[in-house]
Amino acid sequence: MIKDMKILSALFALPLFCLMAWAVYLTYNRDTGIDVRVAVQGYDPRDLFSGRYIQYTIDWDKTPCEQFADGVCPQDEFCAEARWGRQCRFYIPEEYASTLDNLFMLRNQNDLSFEVIYSYKPKKKPIAKRLLINGLDWREYLALHPADEK
Amino acid sequence: MLLSGKLQRWVEQGLISAEQSSQIAKYEKQHSGGMFLKISFTLAGLLIGLGICLVIGANWDGLPVMLRLFGVFAVFAGFIYGLCRTYALDKAKLREFFLIVCSLMIGATIGLIGQMFNLDGGWQSFALAWSILALPYVFFSRSRLLNGAWFLLLLSGLEWGHFFERMIVWWPWLAIVKWEDYVVPLMIVCILFFCGLSWIARKIDEKIHQYTVIGEAVALIFMFMAYYTLFWFGLTQDIFHNRYVDMWLIRLFVVVFLVGRMLMAVHNQNVVSFKRNAFLLELYIFAVFAVQFSGLLTTGIGFIACGLLILLLIKVLRYTSRYIKNMEIFND
């Protein structure tokens, strides 16, 4: 068995270094990618707001593809393949989950548009950065429309 | 009865000498509390680790992103330092605490990074990453609980259930036959397959047990899977598939399997295993009757019959226990 404390310590610290490297890699990708704005729609048939994250899928019909290279939307690079199509997540604080859920469900009646800003680099996994409601960050929107927060 | 009382009685009966009595008392004094400490440290490790996971999961929005990330890494590094110190100080039981916390910290950190970067990977990728990164801690732990939980996490990450389902249903040779007609033989193959895997894990464990208990935990889990499949299928076959031959085939297999395990227990002089399988056989027979006559539970007579059956079962189990204790096939 391993008796050398240095080897043992290195072995125990290895998972921590792997996680740190992963976090650094994701931070680098997020900060060096270009911002793209995509329209989102409900992910059927499951609930949109499961606990503290929003589940959605990207509405490519409403997303301008000019923001990508060659004007082509790289649909396969966004989100993860799930049972009923590609599914994405945006994490939100628990206390706002039901508010955002209601706003999202009634978006057509209230004429609201939901979009997500991604940090995008070709051939890399895009990272969701911000959720927009009518072009405003969702926090700003809720601050400007306190009645919607009920 | 307390150990001191027992020792005094054994000395009076001439079973042990006064010197042996004092030696036993001294040994017990040195080693008593081991199990208590081990359980306490395991429980504390589980509570603290799960607590950190819950705190990170619930309060992630209250702190700035970088602070959260550095905070969780600093806490994790602190636990790793503590773990290394237990080796320097030779504190084996405290080590288990740190190994459990570090294993749980992996899951908490992956979860936090997933939240911060809005990652959309599902449970499988999360479980797989967690189980791979937790391996160094699990490998050095002597806790069967941690090792077993880790193995289940790994199976979950590998989509074991899905893989197994596919293996049974979509094997090419099964495509040419109607597999539903062969459910019972397939289940028997599955149970034997689990037993085989358990046997292999047990053999590997014999070689590596001094280093890690992963082999033992894996062997136990596969054996549990075999028993679970055996009983689940042995009791539900006649409900789901009303086929007379299948029903009796699986019932016969359950009995043969348990009797076989009892014979193996005799061969290995394992009285605990013998007793367990004998009890399970009796419970199975009782459960078959209960399932068969469950329709009677709509009547008062049925309730009385069921109550009497339970009393009979208790009587039989107690008789079996007493009988096994006096069996001559076990040397001690």
How would the global form of chain A be characterised?
globular
Percent of residues of chain A in helical segments?
A: 25-40%
Q: Helicity range of the residues of chain B?
A: over 70%
Total beta-strand segments of chain B = 0
Radius of gyration of chain B: 26 Å
Q: Major beta sheet of chain B, specifics?
A: none
Principal-axes geometry of chain B comes out as globular
How many alpha or pi helices of chain A? 3
Biggest interface, and residues per chain? A-B, 32 and 32 residues
Mean pLDDT of chain A: 81
Poorly predicted tracts of residues of chain B: none
Q: What gap, in angstroms, lies between the N and C termini of chain A?
A: 61 Å
Q: How many independent structural domains of chain A? A: 2
Task: Tag the structure with descriptive keywords.
heterodimer; A: 150 residues; alpha+beta; 2 domains; 8-stranded antiparallel β-sheet; globular; B: 332 residues; mainly alpha; 3 domains; 14 helices; 0% strand
Give structural notes.
The complex is a heterodimer of chains A (150) and B (332). In chain A, 23% of the residues are buried. Chain A has 150 residues and is of the alpha+beta class. Chain A folds into two domains: 1-32; 34-149, no CATH class. Chain A contains three helices and eight strands. Chain A is globular, with a radius of gyration of 19 Å. Chain A is 29% helix and 29% strand. The model of chain A is unreliable at 44-51 (pLDDT under 50). The longest helix of chain A is centred in the first third of the chain and has 28 residues, at 5-32. In chain A, strands 1, 2, 3, 4, 5, 6, 7 and 8 form an eight-stranded antiparallel beta sheet that branches. Chain B has 332 residues and is mostly helical. Chain B has three domains: 40-144, no CATH class; 159-242; 262-326. Chain B is 81% helix and 0% strand. Chain B has helices at residues 3-12, 18-31, 34-58, 65-88, 92-116, 123-140, 144-157, 160-169, 172-175, 183-208, 214-240, 244-267, 271-292, 300-325. The longest helix of chain B has 27 residues, at 214-240. The model of chain B has no long low-confidence stretch (mean pLDDT 80). Chains A and B meet through helix 1, strand 5 and strand 7 of A and helix 4, helix 5 and helix 6 of B.
